[in-house]
Amino acid sequence: MTLTNLKLRRTTLPLITGALIALGLILPSPVLGDFSRDLITQPIDETKLITIGRSVRLEANATNDRGPVPDDFPLPHMLLQLKRSPAMESEFVQYIDQLTDKKSPNFRKWLTAKEIGEKYGPSEQDLNTITHWLESHGFSIYGVHPNRLVIDISGTAATLREAFRTQVDYLYVDRKSHFANMTNLKIPEALAPVVVGLVQIHDFAPQTYLKPKAPNYFISPTLMPLVAADFETIYNVRPLFQQGIRGEGQTITLVEDSDSFSNDIATYPIAQTDRSLHPLTGTSSYVVHIPAGQLPPVTGFWSLTMYDSNGFFVPNPLHRYVINDRSKLHHNPDGSIDIYIQQTKPTNPQQAQNWLPTPAGAFHLIWRLYGLKPNALPGVIQGTGWTPAAIQPCTAGRGAQLMTTCAS
Asked: Which residues, other chains included, contact 249 with Cβ-Cβ below 8 Å and sequence gap of 6+?
């Protein structure tokens, strides 16, 4: 064969193979990497053992030991845990990442546990080698889990001692009788590339570390958890519910990691004092005057929400806890808006449209700004450019230092 013919064969063979795969005439290997999946490559030598560290419970000690169990002591449904090779594990992780990558050909090509086992689990040859070794020591094989990483086996104290070189003893812990293995497991060195260890060689039940505490509905004086009804109020969805619109059949988008920060999404300026730096209280009346064109510059929506001193919404006959961009607000002739912050409802209907009820005592207000435009953010933080409108205490009939009429 000439060098030219050799080069031609080397060039055309991959192309022909690729074409056959595309036509479905031959199938590609399920393994992405160019390596063997068989990890058990040496004969099993029972004299060459390795120790599986940390395979003994802390309770299995001389203080709690009450002597060995009988040889025929049953040990049902122990789980032999297996592992992939580092290269195979890396490919599996890569595939998982591709499942959510729209540019990947594997986008949303979910696999069942059986398919994961066939493509990324231990090889059939390794599984046969392990199961034959277990059966040679007297274990019963109940089954291999579909992902090929767990083998369900049963045996006795004698078979466990013979195969894994450990003794099972009775224990007395916290006034209760138990059993567990007393020494670390040992396995033939040839099995180490695949076998992680054996679990459930004891009867200790999992213990919870949860310590219930008394309910605390406040994270801080101005921050508290919300329930579903709170969201209905804040986002003004009750009118939709009253129309029978509840969101059935809608698509929900789950947003994962992004390059945005929380300030890109929502900003919450909090007001606890008025313009004169006096604490806000229901014994006074206030006006929030928003000049024309000075509504919060957001791409989403905004709201001004009222909370009492305990962080709760303020009960009122209108069930109004928030003024927002969905509220039907009255505009002044010049296009400005006056929001009336006081305990009693204004008698003027137009002013009542813009009324946000207060409690009798202390309260605070929170501006909720969703999607605040980038050029507005420095103003909110540093007090330059756009800033939330001042909360102005009212005098009789007039807003102090403001040419706005207080609610009657």
From this structure: none
Q: What is the pTM of this model?
A: 0.49
Which amino acid appears at position 170 of this protein? Y
Dist. CA 285–CA 224, nearest whole Å: 26
Question: Could you give the residue ranges of the DSSP H alpha helices within 165-253?
Answer: 228-234, 238-242
pLDDT over 70 (residue 314)? yes
Dihedral angle sign, alpha carbons of residues 306, 310, 313, 318: negative
Of 340, 225, 209, give the one whose Cα is nearest residue 287.
340
**DSSP 8-class letter at 252:** -
User: Mind listing the domains of the chain with CATH numbers?
Assistant: 36-83+122-199 (no CATH), 228-247+261-399 (2.60.120.600)
pLDDT at residue 160, as a whole number: 97
The pLDDT confidence band at residue 398, using thresholds 50, 70 and 90, is: very low
Number of CB atoms found within 10 A of residue 365's CB: 23
* pLDDT tens, residue by residue, 325-381: 889 999 999 999 999 999 999 999 999 999 999 999 999 999 988 887 766 665 555
Q: For residue 2, is pLDDT > 70?
A: no
Q: Which are the contacts of 314, defined by CB distance < 8 A and separation ≥ 6?
A: 306, 307, 308, 321, 357, 358, 359, 363
Q: Is the dihedral of CA 44, 46, 47, 48 positive or negative?
A: positive
Task: Yes or no: say if 84 and 90 are a contact pair by the CB < 8 Å rule.
Answer: no
What gap in Å lies between CA 247 and CA 242, rounded to an integer?
13
Integer angstrom CA distances of residue 30 from 91, 191, 304: 11, 24, 57
